[in-house]
Amino acid sequence: MLSRMSRALAIVMLTTAPALAAEDHHDPAGSASDDHGVHAHDHETGVAHAFALGPLRVVHPWTRATQGPDAVVFMDLDNTGDAPITLTGAAADWAASAAIVGFTLKDGEGRYTPLPSIPIAPGHDLVLRPDEVALRFTGITAPLPHGGHVHLTLHTSLGALEIAAMVEAADALQHSHAGHSHMEHGD
Amino acid sequence: MEDLWYQLPPLAQDALLLVGLLLPVLLIAAIVLRGYAPGPLIGALLRRFRWANLVFVLLIALSVGMSIGLIAQERGLRIGMAQAADKFDLVVAAPGSEMTMLLAAVFLQPSDVPLLSGATYTAIATHENVEIAAPLAFGDSYKGSSVVGTIADFATYLSDDRITGHLWTDPFEAVAGAAAPVALGDTFTPAHGHGAAAEQGAHEGVRFTVVGKMARTGTPWDTAILIPIEAVWMVHGLANGHPLSAGDQIGPPFDPDLFPGTPAIVVHTSALWANYALKSEFSRDNETMAFFPGTVLANLYRIMGDVRQAMSVMSGLTQVLVAASVLLGLSILTRLFQRQTAMLRALGAPRRFVIAVIWSYGVTLLAAGTALGLGLGLGAATLLSWLVTHRTDVLVQASLGWNEVHLAAAFLAITSLLSLLPALVLLRQPITNGLRA
Question: What does the alpha-carbon distance between residue B298 and residue A105 come to, in Å, rounded to a whole number?
Fold first, then answer.
């Protein structure tokens, strides 16, 4: 506690500028209602949380509320087809760049290392989850507030897929709907 | 401004934080000491009341050292555990508890778990991008050390090819860890099971010869004795994984139909991305479970992080109490030389000079105590680490990090601010009272 307080004290001492109010940020996302391949909507917010591109299903994309320059996005990618699908990357207009990253534990500290691409074997799913594998967006133009959603594009060997990710709490470990299936909404 | 802060490299952030924490002390020093040189007077005070000063410094050192020792030790343990899991990129086992398998595979605390089939092993071992697929067979022990059946490549991988002697060429040869209770050339008969429940005579007539000794790795595997997995199967009356036509072949490839099973497979891939593809493929309901030991440990650290936060709250509260005691102690110390300061004032010394003397004296004691506390903390953490290393075989090394330095600097900054109070209190008292004291 002391070190946190002292850290805050030190930052204040170093930066005599007043704290920047984050109230007037713009919502980096828009509405997700016009996405193609939308399968299921949140009953309260109307935001989709299951998407598909051919045999590729994307369920429960989510990220964490953040004020920092980076955000990590997680989701379930399910290959329901009979040929491998490769996840090659992602992009979003609210971040400068995006990469697939894998978690490694070095010297007791976890860190994400960029990965080239990941193949998903037919009939298998790739789960992007904290401390394993994720999509990292860097150079975010505005804070991501809890309860909102962000648009992003997944790049795969099948082409691009527009999805919307829920912004969960800053310390969330999973999508708030995780555990309830959206497979029955399939196309 | 916040963006700028985030863009700085961690080292610059840490260094700036330290400067920021010490800035109040430097500012007060600049204001109070400007134009004065109270050095000789402070030196005299330090010598005159040397025993009281020494006790005061030691008390501060103890309190700072305890907080710092705890933080340094916790980090050392975290790093040691992570390093123990470093060689275990991905572990495949039968569905169950990841923590149970982590304890078994990484920390050699095996428990009864279902076995993986030969077909599963072959699918993993022949998968492109898999460099090593090492089956692990636990269950036997010798003088408290785990005797683990595996393949020769795993011994090479685990020790980074630092093996004195050679790898096994016969099913009844063994390669021992650096801290295992056997030397090169020794022969031994493993007991069935572990600890007090181990059956000593279960493998009567079976003798293994130690032909290689691995260099120290700083992990619990240093105490293990590795033997060919074929020997484990044979000793337990099972097939040895190879058809008769294979002759005396040791190691992969195994015949899936003659593979008796393995509780865990340690997988090392040629590239990081391949781990995630493999995990996706070998996470099969009711068949196999694939997990990253690093992720399980990170989850564990998260829980430990909550404990750490509770500890920091307690440590914070303790520091507040210590700061209050410091204030009290300084007031008592300044009373000791009340007469001297009253004399100074009677001689016409400016009030700021008197404050400069008392404040610098207090800060000198605080700074000495804090510096000594840092050393004491490192010493305590080193001792604790040595004990943990000897008890768990996880190499734990204590060192001072930025966190500890920041904590010490914050303590010094707050107590230095508080040190102004006794000086101000002393100045409020009439000079005549002081002269009579």
Answer: 8
Question: Look-up: residue for tokens 């479970």?
Answer: B289
Q: Rounded to whole angstroms, what are the CA distances from A56 to A87, A137, A154, B406?
A: 10, 22, 11, 49
Amino acid at B213: K
ipTM of the complex: 0.70
The per-residue pLDDT string of chain A (187 residues; one tens digit each, 9 = 90 and over) reads: 444 444 444 443 333 333 333 333 334 444 333 333 444 555 455 567 789 999 999 999 999 999 888 999 999 999 999 999 999 999 999 999 999 999 988 777 788 999 999 999 999 999 999 999 999 999 998 889 998 899 999 999 999 999 999 999 888 888 777 665 554 443 3
Q: Is A68 on the interface with B (CB under 8 A)?
A: yes
Round to whole Å and give the CA distance between B85 and B292.
Answer: 9
Contact state of B411 with A133 under an 8 Å Cβ cutoff: no
Distance, in angstroms, between A68 CA and closest chain B CA? 7
Is B260 inside any structural domain?
yes
A22-178: CATH topology: Immunoglobulin-like (2.60.40)
Residues B44 and B100 placed together within one structural domain of the fold: no
User: Do the chains contact at B272 and A102, CB–CB below 8 Å?
Assistant: yes
Contacts of A78 in chain B (CB under 8 A): none
Considering only residues 92 to 121 of chain A, which have any Cβ-Cβ distance to chain B shorter than 8 Å?
100, 102-110, 113, 115-121
Residue B227 C-alpha, separation from nearest chain A C-alpha, in angstroms = 29
Domain with B141, as residue range(s), is 90-291
Nearest to A3 among B82, B283, B403 (CB): B403
Looking at the structure of chain B, the number of domains it has is 2
